[in-house]
TrEMBL record:
InterPro entries: Asn/Gln-tRNA_amidoTrfase_suB/E, Asn/Gln-tRNA_Trfase_suB/E_cat, Asn/Gln_amidotransferase, Asn/Gln_tRNA_amidoTrase-B-like, GatB, GatB_C_1, GatB_Yqey_C_2, Gln-tRNA_amidoTrfase_suB_CS. Belongs to the GatB/GatE family. GatB subfamily. The keyword Cell division does not apply. This is Aspartyl/glutamyl-tRNA(Asn/Gln) amidotransferase subunit B. The gene is gatB. Its EC number is 6.3.5.-. Gene3D superfamilies: 1.10.10.410, GatB domain, N-terminal subdomain. It comes from Enterocloster lavalensis. GO terms for molecular function: asparaginyl-tRNA synthase (glutamine-hydrolyzing) activity; ATP binding; glutaminyl-tRNA synthase (glutamine-hydrolyzing) activity; transferase activity. Heterotrimer of A, B and C subunits. It catalyses: L-aspartyl-tRNA(Asn) + L-glutamine + ATP + H2O = L-asparaginyl-tRNA(Asn) + L-glutamate + ADP + phosphate + 2 H(+); L-glutamyl-tRNA(Gln) + L-glutamine + ATP + H2O = L-glutaminyl-tRNA(Gln) + L-glutamate + ADP + phosphate + H(+). It comes from the Bacteria. Keywords: ATP-binding, Ligase, Nucleotide-binding, Protein biosynthesis, Transferase.
Length: 482
């Protein structure tokens, strides 16, 4: 009988905070600047420079900790994590080991079986990011960009409570949504503002001791994380089945090859020779500060679902779908506030926006059209300036290019044709050109009616008033003989 194995998974999630300046200096945190243009003596580790803590970093860390049910260390400190690497200009990273700002929290996730479970959060600590190595294969050299050095991070360390990739993704999605709703980070995996390292081990089912864990790095999408978990789980089980030992190490995942390779042996805290940072005083967090951050917490997803159902009369399905993305929820609320038609806004977002997101393989966070333009389009449909089919074409232009719908409709000549004389002539031409369909309708085939209406709409390039076309077709069929 083959052995059964259990997978134990914990995550270290690094989140870049949405501050305008770095954690210990006033350099910009803006993504995408020319290399080494957002730097100063502090974030490049120049001798004699001194760090000064950015208060907003503490605010964001507190907010995330409170939203994830953590205990707050009201007296916390910064420590130096010593290691030597080219992207680390000081040869140490300022982090928190001994007294992190948050500890002993949890998140509740939904499982594949339809139940729920709590995933423990061991701690959340504040730290600075390192720089970035850029490898130039053409010149056979590596260069360093220190723009990211000193960008504020929180590291959220879970307990090893997850058992498969589905639970990991559920945890990450919930964590990302909480942080986005708080405004603490945009959590864009593709830009590195949310990064997850996976600690994974396997053991025989029922065994009391944990297996040897490995850490998987270089994971920049949920799909890559799921594939890496499955790949590493299989690799470790194969080693155990062959009677070989799993080595505690850090491994780099190659998503193109769907395999991993060893980077280095896995370090423990003692390897980094942590000691308290002598340049930074302890952070003392008062009860009043915690109360103020608590009071400023926005509606989270669960609260929004109830609010949308009560305030806007949306069905639960609509509310759950829209609140699944902060960007989608913001667009819904702002558009509904402008046009006063929440269900109509919901329909456009759930049907057309979702279709285009899937078609263009986009994340909802990348939708950049303005609520005013969607509201204006809804108004054009309501006023019968454009019909719904034309409106779908206009919405696609709004979605992709954020065009002004009123101007676009005017420039492209897309207004509804409501001239009864012109439409009557078009319908007559269609009936004359399709005698068989006319005969079919006369013989009780209702589908023929739809065909004739469709042909008329096609002849009018989709710009006709559908209700008027339907009436005219029926009216003229009543006078035409097969």
């Amino acid at each position: 009988m083959s052995k059964q194995y259990e997978t134990m998974i914990g995550l270290e999630v690094h989140v870049e905070l949405a501050t305008r300046t770095k954690i210990f200096c006033s350099c910009s945190t803006q993504f995408g600047g020319a290399p080494n243009t957002h730097t100063c003596p502090v974030c490049t580790g120049m001798p004699g420079s001194l760090p000064v803590l950015n208060r907003q970093v503490v605010e964001y860390a507190l907010a995330v900790g409170l939203a994830t049910n953590c205990q707050i260390n009201q007296y916390c400190k910064f420590d130096r994590k010593n290691y030597f690497y080219p992207d680390n200009p000081q040869n140490y990273q300022i982090s928190q080991l001994y007294l992190p700002i948050c500890h002993d929290g949890w998140l509740e996730i939904e499982t594949e079986s339809g139940g729920s479970k709590k995933v423990g959060i061991h701690e959340i600590h504040m730290e600075e990011d390192a720089g970035k190595l850029i490898h130039d294969e053409w010149e056979d050299c590596s260069m360093v960009d220190y723009n990211r050095s000193g960008v504020p991070l929180i590291e959220i360390v879970s307990e090893p409570d997850m058992r498969n990739a589905a639970e990991v993704i559920a945890y990450l999605e919930k964590l990302r949504l909480i942080i986005q709703y708080l405004g603490a980070s945009d959590c864009k995996l593709q830009e590195g503002s949310m990064r997850a390292d996976v600690n994974l081990s396997v053991r025989e089912l029922g065994a009391p001791e944990f297996g040897t864990r490995t850490e998987m790095k270089n994971l920049n999408s949920f799909k890559a994380i799921a594939r890496a978990i499955e790949g590493e789980r299989k690799r470790q089980i194969e080693l155990l089945e062959e009677g070989r030992a799993v080595v505690q190490e850090t491994r780099r995942w190659d998503d193109n090859k769907e395999s991993s390779k060893a980077m280095r042996s896995k370090e423990d805290a003692k390897d980094y020779r942590y000691f308290p940072d002598p340049d930074l005083p302890p952070v003392v967090i008062s009860d009043q500060w915690i109360s103020r951050v608590k009071a400023a917490q926005p509606q989270m997803r669960t609260e929004k679902i109830s609010y949308y159902m009560e305030a806007f009369g949306l069905p639960r399905y609509d509310a759950e779908l829209i609140t699944g993305s902060k960007r989608m929820a913001d667009l819904f609320e702002e558009t509904a506030a402008i046009c006063g038609r929440p269900k109509e806004v919901s329909n456009w977002l759930m049907v057309e926006a979702m279709r285009l997101l899937k078609e263009h393989e986009m994340d909802p966070d990348r939708m950049h059209f303005t609520p005013a333009h969607l509201a204006a389009l809804i108004g054009l449909v309501e006023q019968n300036v454009v019909n719904r089919n034309v409106a779908k074409t206009v919405f696609e232009e709004i979605f992709l290019n954020d065009v002004d719908p009123e101007r676009y409709v005017e420039e492209k000549g897309l207004k509804v044709v409501s001239d009864e004389g012109a439409l009557r002539a078009a319908v007559e031409a269609v009936l004359e050109a399709n005698p068989q369909s006319v005969a079919d309708y006369r013989n009780g085939k209702e589908k023929a009616m739809g065909f004739l209406v469709g042909q008329t709409m096609r002849a009018m390039k989709g710009k006709a008033d559908p209700a008027l076309v339907n009436r005219l077709v029926r009216e003229l069929l009543g006078t035409v003989r097969p």
